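Dear support,

Our group has been running a series of protein-ligand predictions, and this particular one with protoporphyrin IX containing FE is the one our PI (initials K.S.) wants archived with full inputs and outputs. We had some confusion internally about which version of the output was final, so please treat the block below as the authoritative record. The input we submitted was:
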Amino acid sequence: LIIVQSFIKNLKQSNKKIQHQPPSPLALPIIGHMYLLGSVLHQSFQKLALRYGPFMLIRAGASSSYIVSNGAIAKEIFKTNDVNFAARPEFGSSEYQIYKDTLFSTLDYTKYWIFMKKICMTEILSPQQITKFADVRKEEMMKLLEFFAECSEQGEACDVGNQLMAMTNNLICRLTMSTRTSTNVNESAEIREIAKGITLLSGQLSLGEVFGPLKKCDLLGAGRKVKALLLRFDKFMDGIIEKHEEKRHAGSKDRKDMMDILLEIADDTSTEMKLTRNGIKGLFLDLFLGGTDTTSVALQWALAELLNHPKAIKKLQQEIDRIVGVKNRLVEDSDIQNLPYLQAVVKETLRLHPSLPLVFRKCREDCVINGYKILKDSRLVVSLYAVNRDSNAWADADEFVPERYLNLNENLAIEPDELEAIKDGQNFCYVPFGGGRRGCPGAGLAAAVLHRTLGAMIQCFDWIIKDAETLNMEQGAGFSAAMVYPLVCYPVMRVKKDSLVHKAFCVRMGSGEGLHSEECDVGSLATLIQTSVAGSKT
Ligand code: HEM
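Confirmed final output from the archive:
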């Protein structure tokens, strides 16, 4: 009897602990909390979290979501309940989404998604594949540096953001299907235009959620426009697939790009699932949408933060000068491990400016999060922005302090035994790439591009902000938290006129100031150029 009684008492107590509704602001009829939300959604959520706590319920019209704003609860989602939150909710009406069954980023947590994730991690975005295409990354980076070098020679300012965007777009096009602006202007530019349109319209489409069942009426007209763009993308991809098929049947010995790999998997009858042409197209759409803006926006923020922190940019230049030098060669992938301050700058940039500040998940089964009962199919948003800037986890949370990773003990407001976890990425108060099995599969590629490109931009140039002392760091609306104001600067070549790096630029830019054997070591210059432009006959 005593045992039964104490069991019932315990049950009652534990039931009491499970609450049903987390804190929520006063909701107005019909619109709910929409009156509290500004255009920059992640900042509105962060402000509300300061008042209502790290786990709150927000209702916008007919759509309700739980909002997570600290590392402890993010850990419950990304680790403790990983599988249960490995699905995404629907955004707006899916009627217009021609790849609704194959678009990797929006799929439910199904066998097919697991199969595709495996392909991403072991084949197309694997560390081996990233290394194999290091020369392509380098070539695109060199193009970018050449453009800045030309601006420097002409004394002209340039819109750095536009150039970075073009670079990441070209890079993703080349890695996925060996297409690039200079070899095929139309293909790369067309992809950019389609991806830009879809990103913009998807924002409007997801607004349809607030209309509940009425979302099917496509009141904002975004659905029809998205469908038109997707059909254009579909036709474009048919052309690319056809070209790759022809090449394969002709027995081409070219290095395999992602499309070649996927077509081989599609033809393999021994795989556990069938990869269809639509599956390839859906995954490619994700790679274009997920890989381009995210990486270029992060690079922009990194340069902007450095420009607003002259001491940091100097420290970074000194580190690169010491380890790599300014004269003989550019920063290589293999240098990154020896450049801890560069790593810290990239890490701090992603902490303050996660390119996708909000992550959307769907609950697959009833569960308890932070003491609240969450029902199956509920929507949940992890605000990476708020988690990364949580002042209970980070000292001076809104400040750009790369040094905090070099001396964790002084700058972090968490328990010392968690410090090691932060270093190896297991701590959930730093989550720029999301987390758990649904975390970003492109993090490795992004890291490779970010470190090397930023390193080279700082190694080769001093940067002067156009018409201002400091940059306006206002964040814009939209899925990727880009800067509101364009990042316009004067690049000023740092490398000395007679240095090998400078001469390599001159040769590649065809400015005639290139080689004179009495001036420099032609052998090392030739090596430099060859490694800069692998495969080129220069
Ligand atoms: C700085 C660069 C990048 C950042 C900050 C970033 C961040 C993110 C985040 C936060 C997510 C959602 C994760 C979650 O739900 O937990 C995501 C998903 C995704 N990212 Fe990235 N990403 C970046 C670059 C890339 C690149 C280069 C690619 C590939 C070329 C890529 C492909 C994807 C894909 C396909 C998804 C969907 C994954 C899924 O739903 O299972 N990302 N990314």
